């Protein structure tokens, strides 16, 4: 099932996409048709209170950057204010010279997760969506990444949550900038899999339904500028598209 949040006629709703139709959800079951995908404005498909991210989690990116092989996941947070949906603008602050895209697979939590065992992680996953871990490269010099990762619009998610995807390890991530492929990777190439990440995170951080885990980005991270359109496509899920604009 493809789960969405949408806005139609000034009202926000939750639904399921079947073909080109958006059905209202009633007790988790698709009900009456609210409209077509062309009728509604898709929003970020969830509203996480916690967004946990894994850094340097793809073998090709580690090799590209010349970084040492990690012994355990490297975690950081993005703030919920960074969330925007498909089609929304990514706003580059005027003082940022290098704004970067990072196409990623996002895991959406389905039930309270605390002390999760890696081999039981799937029991706690609602589904998967596409993410762009937008980063202000200039602000990494802060010594911690709060500002670099959490400015408004720095976490596009969407277009929906796919609850029945193929094996995540078989998914492929493709990022396009102005229609040109700039990242291409396989989720099979992660250093720490979804189960390992959820087990590691939930040893200390309790995740609730709707919370999000970003699983890292493959090689090819690079800059984007106002006027660029950027797409993150994940096989078996869909395509997240946003446009970069200058922040007023």
TrEMBL record:
This is 2-keto-4-pentenoate hydratase/2-oxohepta-3-ene-1,7-dioic acid hydratase (Catechol pathway). GO terms for biological process: carboxylic acid metabolic process. InterPro entries: FAH (IPR051121), Fumarylacetoacetase-like_C (IPR011234), Fumarylacetoacetase_C_sf (IPR036663), Rv2993c-like_N (IPR018833). Residues 51-244 form the Fumarylacetoacetase-like C-terminal domain. GO terms for molecular function: isomerase activity; metal ion binding. Keywords: Metal-binding. Pfam families: FAA_hydrolase (PF01557), Rv2993c-like_N (PF10370). Residues 1-45 form the Rv2993c-like N-terminal domain. The keyword Metal-binding applies. Belongs to the FAH family.
